[in-house]
From TrEMBL:
Molecular function (Gene Ontology), one example: metal-dependent deubiquitinase activity
Full protein name: MPN domain-containing protein
Keyword Transmembrane applies: no
Keywords, ordered alphabetically: Hydrolase, Metal-binding, Metalloprotease, Protease, Ubl conjugation pathway, Zinc
One Pfam family recorded for the sequence: JAB
Matching InterPro entries: JAMM/MPN+_dom, MPN, STAMBP/STALP-like_MPN
Isomerase is among the record's keywords: no
Family the entry assigns: Belongs to the peptidase M67C family.
Length: 173
C-alpha cells in the first residue's frame, strides 16, 4: 500500500482545532487499485462528533456519495489521540475490525501529536486479532481483550510504502 508522506502533516493541520480542545478527529483513507497496488490518494474528513477518547462519523451517506462519484475505494481510517500515546484502544480495535473485514489490507493510522512516537500505522493480526475482535461481545465501549498479539505495526512489515506525492483532501464537516 502506498501512502503520501504529506498525509500526517495535512491531517494534523485539519485536526488542530479539535486537538487543542482535546477532541479526537477522524478521517477516511481512500484511493485506487492499479497494477495490484493500493494507493491512498484522498483523505476525507466526514461530518463527525468527538470526545477526548472517541470520534464517530455522521451522515455517512455524504461520504459514500462522494467516494462513489469519484470511484474511490476505502483503504482504512486515520484519527488523533490528542493526549494519549500512539496505540489502538479497544474502541479503535472494534472500529478497525469492520474496515479489515471488508478489505483485509485495510490500515488504521493513529496520530498522537504530543507523544513520541507520534504516528503509527496498524492492522489487526490474522490470526488471532481479527477473530478475537470480530467475535468479541463486550458491551462496554472500553474493555480488555486477551493478552495476545491482536494488532501489529503495519509499517514494520514491508506492506507500507511512504512516497512523495500529493494527497487530495476533502473536508465534508
Amino acid at each position: 500500500m502506498r501512502l503520501p508522506h504529506v498525509l500526517q502533516e495535512q491531517f494534523l493541520s485539519l485536526a488542530r482545532p479539535n486537538t487543542l480542545k482535546n477532541i479526537e478527529t477522524c478521517g477516511i483513507l481512500a484511493g485506487n487499485l492499479k497494477n495490484n497496488v493500493l494507493t491512498i490518494t484522498t483523505l476525507i474528513l466526514p461530518k463527525q462528533t468527538g470526545t477526548s477518547d472517541t470520534c464517530s462519523t455522521e451522515n455517512e451517506e455524504d461520504l459514500f456519495e462522494f467516494q462513489n462519484k469519484h470511484d474511490l475505494l476505502t483503504f482504512g481510517w486515520i484519527h488523533t489521540h490528542p493526549t494519549q500515546s500512539c496505540f489502538l484502544s479497544s474502541v479503535d480495535l472494534h472500529t478497525h475490525c469492520s474496515y479489515q473485514l471488508m478489505l483485509p489490507e485495510a490500515i488504521a493510522i493513529v496520530c498522537s501529536p504530543s507523544q513520541t512516537p507520534n504516528f503509527g500505522i496498524f492492522r489487526l493480526t490474522d490470526p488471532p486479532g481479527l477473530d478475537i475482535i470480530s467475535t468479541c461481545r463486550a458491551e462496554r465501549a472500553f474493555h480488555t481483550h486477551p493478552d495476545k498479539p491482536i494488532y501489529t505495526d503495519a509499517s514494520d512489515t514491508g506492506f507500507i510504502e511512504m512516497i512523495n506525492f500529493d494527497v487530495n483532501v476533502v473536508d465534508l464537516r
